[in-house]
Design brief:
Length: 224
């Protein structure tokens, strides 16, 4: 068990803080919604009613989709774009999809290479793009969930204010949908751009996201 915890510590840590923050969001969001309902003369709702509501779903989905958009763009842009000196970039001499030797494919596979990397044909082709495809699917799925939950929450507000509801396609073209999306996108792009540039000049001793403290600024794709 100790070895399992050691070997999977990073994933377990972020899984736990994710669950803790999601639970915290549920309680805080429920309290915030009830305050607004009481101010407007409505009745408060319970925690379970809140976490199964469109209000909670849209708040969660709009954050998830922006995170996955950040990663899918970073994954794909990292194939063709580099940042000299960054730990988040590969060196300029590996620009593009790289050779089979660099990617350990074909005659260059190793004894412990994944089965689909060894298989050749469509399976290796699919596996070669599996990370980008899965993250893209997660982005599209969470963005779609945001649009559905967002429309429901928006229409609830419209009914409270005695205004007309909108269809799904109308909601996709609405300022509410794009405001929810873009306010998250810009923060994610700022964050990933910042770490790409900061890692050129700044260090965190022992971190996989930092170069060794004494490494020259120009060293690229090197981790401490």
């Amino acid at each position: 068990m100790k070895r399992f915890l050691r070997d999977n510590g990073l994933g377990l840590f972020f899984g736990l803080v994710f669950l803790a923050s999601l639970v915290g969001q549920a309680f805080a969001g429920n309290a915030d919604l009830n305050e607004r309902r009481l101010t407007d003369g409505g009745d408060p709702i319970g925690l379970w009613a809140y976490v199964t509501s469109s209000d909670f779903a849209v708040d969660v989905a709009e954050n998830w989709q922006s995170e996955y958009l950040q990663f899918v763009l970073f994954i794909l842009a990292g194939v063709w774009l580099v940042q000299k000196g960054s730990t988040e970039s590969k060196p300029a001499d590996r620009l593009g999809r790289e050779t089979d030797e660099q990617q350990l494919l074909g005659e260059h596979v190793e004894r412990d290479s994944p089965p689909w990397a060894r298989a050749g044909g469509w399976r290796t082709g699919l596996y070669s793009n599996s990370l980008g495809l899965v993250v893209l699917a997660l982005f599209l799925g969470s963005w779609g969930a945001q649009s559905i939950a967002g429309r429901s929450a928006y229409n609830n507000e419209q009914l409270v204010n005695f205004q007309d509801t909108v269809t799904w396609s109308e909601y996709l073209a609405s300022p509410d949908f794009w405001n929810r999306s873009l306010q998250n996108w810009q923060s994610e792009f700022l964050a990933i751009g910042s770490i790409v540039v900061f890692s050129v000049y700044l260090r965190q001793r022992g971190s996989s996201q930092s170069k060794p403290v004494g490494s020259p600024h120009a060293d690229t794709d090197e981790n401490g």
